[in-house]
């Protein structure tokens, strides 16, 4: 298990595997939450048969397998060994051109470049400004000159409510009440220990952040929450600026 604050999903994947569940959403593998956005986005792009795709935060691989089934040579990266093992088994059973590697999304190395990079709800797990800039710089470096970056991430609104176990501060950091001791990442509020859980920015702030990181926004929308109090989903199709390599 990673000791990074965003690398703490291994236990969740172990529970999913023990329960016989193949997807983080606890739905059927092919009914994953992000599928409608991917279908919309791929329909807007030219055919990509044989092209290279990278899936950030792939988990058990539903997005990576979806891309492979749509003609991409797809690589999924994640920090959870259990999730990656499950993903590899599912892809092999389906005879898909999908690979999976244990890698930190902030520090992906290698010479491979990609036509398409998909963020699988990974961005809202990256909390600190410096880390988010490292993620964006990694995406810019790994994209080919005409590459596309697809993002779907949590977005805040005035009525968002995560419940009593969470605290959303003015900077958009969602803190979770913590009983596992203090660390470099934890903070104390009102005498209690809290751990950073998500970064949930307003849609306008997300749009501005992505543009400032050098992406050209081709299409963007915010999907409203399914239930009152839930965060909205910010969805964007982005291009790498042609003057960036």
CATH architecture of the largest domain: 3-Layer(aba) Sandwich
* Terminal-residue CA separation: 33 Å
Element string (H = helix, E = strand): HHEHEHEEHEEEEEHEE
Strand proportion, as a percent range, falls in 25-35%
If you had to describe this structure to a student in words, what would you say it looks like?
With 245 residues, the chain is α/β, with parallel strands linked by helices. The chain has two domains: 10-157 and 200-240, Vaccinia Virus protein VP39 (Rossmann fold), CATH 3.40.50; 161-199. The protein contains six helices and eleven strands. The chain has a seven-stranded mixed sheet with strand order 3-2-1-4-5-11-10, with helices on both faces. It has a four-stranded antiparallel sheet with strand order 6-7-9-8, with no helix packed on it. Helix 4 links the parallel strand 2 and strand 3 (98-102). The longest helix is centred in the middle third of the chain and has 14 residues, at 129-142. It is globular and about 55 Å long. The chain starts with 9 loop residues before the first helix and ends in a 5-residue tail after the last strand.
List keywords for this structure.
245 residues; Rossmann fold; 7-stranded mixed β-sheet; 6 helices; 30% strand
Short characterization:
This protein has helices spanning about 10-20, 35-45, 60-70, 80-95, 130-140, 205-210; strands at about 50-55, 75-80, 100, 115-120, 145-155, 165-170, 175, 185-190, 190-200, 215-225, 230-240.
Please give the structural blueprint:
Elements: H1 10-18, H2 35-44, E1 52-56, H3 62-69, E2 73-78, H4 81-93, E3 98-102, E4 114-120, H5 129-142, E5 143-155, E6 166-168, E7 173-177, E8 187-189, E9 192-199, H6 203-212, E10 215-223, E11 232-240
Parallel strand pairs: 1-2, 1-4, 2-3, 4-5
Antiparallel strand pairs: 5-11, 6-7, 7-9, 8-9, 10-11
């Amino acid at each position: 298990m990673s000791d990074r604050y965003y690398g703490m999903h291994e236990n969740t994947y172990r529970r999913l595997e023990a329960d016989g569940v193949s997807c983080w959403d606890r739905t059927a593998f092919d009914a994953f939450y992000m599928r409608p956005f991917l279908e919309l986005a791929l329909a807007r792009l030219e055919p990509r048969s044989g092209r290279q795709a990278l899936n950030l935060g792939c988990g058990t691989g539903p997005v990576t397998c979806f891309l492979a089934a749509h003609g991409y040579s797809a690589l999924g990266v994640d920090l959870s060994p259990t999730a990656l093992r499950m993903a590899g088994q599912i892809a092999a059973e389906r005879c898909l051109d999908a690979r999976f590697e244990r890698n930190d999304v902030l520090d992906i190395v290698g010479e491979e470049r990609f036509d398409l990079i998909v963020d699988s709800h990974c961005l809202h797990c990256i909390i600190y400004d410096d880390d988010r800039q490292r993620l964006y710089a990694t995406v810019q470096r790994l994209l080919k000159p005409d590459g596309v970056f697809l993002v779907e991430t949590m977005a805040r609104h005035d009525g968002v409510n995560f419940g009593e176990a969470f605290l959303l501060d003015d900077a958009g950091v969602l803190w979770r009440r913590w009983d596992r001791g203090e660390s470099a990442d934890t903070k104390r509020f009102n005498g209690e220990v809290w751990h950073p859980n998500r970064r949930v920015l307003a849609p306008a702030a997300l749009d501005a952040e992505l543009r400032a990181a050098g992406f050209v926004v081709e299409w963007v929308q915010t999907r409203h929450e399914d239930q009152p109090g839930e965060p909205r989903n910010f969805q964007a199709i982005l291009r790498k600026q042609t003057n960036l390599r």
